[in-house]
Amino acid sequence: MKHILFSALIGFAFCAWAQAPKEPAKEAAKPEAMKEPAKAAPSKQAAASKKPRRWNEDARHCLARASNTEIIKCAEEFL
Questions:
Q1: Inside any domain, residue 63
Q2: Domain range spanning residue 78?
Q3: 29 HSE (CA, 13 A, CB side)
Q4: Is residue 6 a part of any domain in this protein?
Q5: For the chain, how long is the longest CA-to-CA vector?
Q6: pLDDT by residue (tens digit) across 20-74?
Q7: Cβ–Cβ under 8 Å, residues 18 and 42
Q8: Environment class of residue 18 by beta-carbon count within 10 Å: exposed (0-12), middle (13-18) or buried (19+)?
Q9: N- or C-end of the chain: fewer Cβ atoms within 10 A?
Q10: Cα distances (Å, whole numbers) of residue 76 to 49, 54, 73
């Protein structure tokens, strides 16, 4: 009974050790000038220029293509 309890405790300890953060001190040590600047939000023009999603349309016509790469390129428009 003691061996089972000891094995369980070792197993739980190993799992907790494996999930511990590796090195959180490195990120805190960076000066503010070295950090990446925040990315600006995309403009309304960029959002308007995107094609509408076609995920609800039928893409079975792509299967009539000759090669797998042509089928994939055709089907990517519907993702």
A1: yes
A2: 54-79
A3: 4
A4: no
A5: 69
A6: 666 655 555 555 555 555 555 556 555 556 667 777 888 899 999 999 999 999 9
A7: no
A8: exposed
A9: N
A10: 18, 10, 5
- Helix (H, G, I), strand (E, B), or coil: what is residue 54? coil
What total of structural domains would you count in the chain?
A: 1
| Lookup: tokens for 37 | 């600047």
Distance CA 43, CA 22 (A): 37
Distance CA 21, CA 66 (A): 50
Paired tokens of 32: 């503010």
75 Cβ contact partners less than 8 Å away, ≥ 6 residues apart: 59, 62
- The pTM score is 0.35
Please say whether the beta carbons of 9 and 17 come within 8 A: no
Smallest CA-to-CA distance from 59 within 46, 47, 45, 73 is with 73
Tell me whether residue 13 is in a domain: no
